[in-house]
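Minutes, project check-in
Item: structure for the 363-residue chain
Input as provided by the requester:
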Amino acid sequence: MKGRVVSMTGIEEVTIKEFEVPKAEKGQIIMEVIKSNICGSDIHMWEGKHIFKNHVLGHEMVGRIHELGEGVVTDYAGQEVHVGDRICPVYYLTCLKCEACLEGHFNVCTHGSDFQGQLADKYPHFTGSFATHYVIQPNQYFYKVPDNIPDNVVAGANCGISQMLYAMEGAGVKPNDFVVVQGMGGLGLYTSAICDVMGANVIAVDAVDDRLEEAKAFGAKYTIDMKQFPTKEERYAEITKITGKKGPDIVVDVAGVPSAFDEAVRMAKIGGTIVEIGNVSIEESQCTSVIPGLIVRKCLTIKGVLRYQPYYLYRTLQFLARYHDTYPFDSLTDKCYSLEETQEALQKAANKEVKRAIIEPNQ
């Protein structure tokens, strides 16, 4: 049986390639992809701003089991699995043997990207989710999807929502905390809903009216419009007023703008926590100035978060099963595209003409 994958062939250039769908080897699963989101990381890769080059694109996905390899009888929560079941895989590998894994940092396994980012022409070919099929490798976590979660909601569970649930629990969000969220894209909205469930007061910061309105629907108690408060001094004054002069307990930077980190350091309360997720580039051009003395004098905790511990995907699926109707997760995906329309979908997503595009490879 033939299948197709979307492969980068240059900066902002993709092509569809066809390969024989492999048979499931021991410990593997061949999954038929139902839906795959276009994540911000996919756009960065397409634009040539990532370490992955000319590979099979896509990593946010939901699918159904096409074939089970020898020995695969349950998911990573011990639930029995069968051909036809809906599943969601963690998009990276956990080798359990490298230096990071031996320290318990499974989310930064040094072999995590052994298949993600692989060239399309290299076997087993189906290593990204912009494809008709996807090969789940041995030691790659995956979980059955609860029946009540719609496909377009669960398609992003194995990336953004899991990362933010992991980050917020790690930051120790408590009831009545004030949490400033810098940037109300998908990650910011997920953060708002998660913190609202935890009983915290979210202060959403953005310059886009629609995003600020959405933030309210996702549980934000307060919004800061950067057009109304254009300087960091003005924003700090307003946030100080909201928090009763103490400043926010936690600041979450998902804006992806280096200067947001400097602003987070300035606004966080004494003894506060800053969660840095938005800035992933290590290029010199992405530097920003920070006053180190503020970190010392305010005894700040700074937590960088990449990916999530793999079992958090299971916890995220349980979260969505309970709350997907409470918050408008369904509204975050507003346009579906076929595999042949991937180039157009990436372009529109990069231009922010759509909120979150979904690829339906088998439509």
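Outcome recorded: The first strand starts at residue 2 and ends at 10.
No further action items on this chain.
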